Amino acid sequence: MPFAVYVLGLAVFAQGTSEFMLSGLVSGIATDLGVSIPAAGLLTSGFAVGMVIGAPLMALFSRNWPRRRALLVFLGAFIAVHVVGAVTTSYPLLLATRVVGALANAGFWAVALVTAVALVAPEARARATSVVVGGVTVACVAGVPAGAVLGEQWGWRAAFWAVALVSVPAVLAVARAVPDAVPEESGTTGVREELRAPTGARLLVTLGAMALVQGATFCAFSYLEPLVTGVTGLGAGWVPVVLALFGVGSFVGVTLAGRLPEARTDALIAAGMAALAIGWAVLGLAASNAVAVTVLVLLQGILAFGTGTALISRVFLLAAGAPSLAGAFATAAFNVGGALGPWLGGLAIGAGYGFRAPLWVSGLLMALALGAAGALSAMRRVGGPYPRGESTQETEISGS
Hints:
The chain is mainly alpha-helical. Helix content is 78%, strand content 0%. It has 15 helices and no strands. It has helices at residues 3-20, 26-33, 37-61, 67-87, 91-118, 125-154, 156-177, 191-196, 201-221, 224-232, 239-259, 265-285, 290-318, 326-353, 357-383. The longest helix is centred in the middle third of the chain and has 30 residues, at 125-154.
């Protein structure tokens, strides 16, 4: 695996910490800025909306830039908005910095995924994807709990400053390790041809399933802090521990998915979706039991990110005709879920259903994802194997 791929994972770690850290800071932000907890949760949705919009726009905007220059520009903008976010006393301005930061993050993600895949042989693409996505899981293991500790000790602004500082080494590493040119340059395919790529039915259904899986994940994850303190009855000091458990699980899930043979990817997606649907429902029932919560949070982290990584690999396979935008498609779908989940969870809490409600919403979203998986399985039976001559012997997404 080229060293540059690991460098991209390092940069994603810094950005992933920012994307997820609010799950341990919502109460502090709400109190400090005088807004409700659902409003503070919408900062996560605002970031995700910026990612959704920014992924294709930034990928097209930087399409003809040298890869290293694009990555450095996006990282520089990301650092700048976090400095602004750390000093502002205005909720609207903080929300705006989240959106702008997400645009930069989206651009980085789109370029980083395409670059990582282009730097390795075809048979190593799933592993390269897992290394980049693994930066997010390391953020969940270390960055997000550390942000929660900083927020507990010195206030939520300290976490924003920490993200900006951690991003500086990533800038230096990208500048030294990532080449400007990679084996598969984006200029070989026209913009119009790439924009037509997401019109394929199987790709659209795969992206929809991915959005639903991530929506379920973000819905539950964004409100773990009030769940742990308000329902499970654990003290605030346990919040970083629970968040770290989810992060450990997510790292394990990404690692396993990256090493799974290509022929088993669809089986992983099917089994992962079914287990996630059951797991969120069981967690909702057992939320008052501390032991059950800690075990289930770990397992759900494994399933959520293992399934999500497998779906990203499928997007790259189905979007073979869009070398520049394949990463943007995956990033956008990932963050449609990131926007939808916290919003729906906040609506459920705001409606008076309590802090267990996001878990029930997550279970419902997974049921919809299973329906999408069934539709994709039916399409494969009619349409034949995946592009690039993928084996027709591969296990169907339904697991049959």
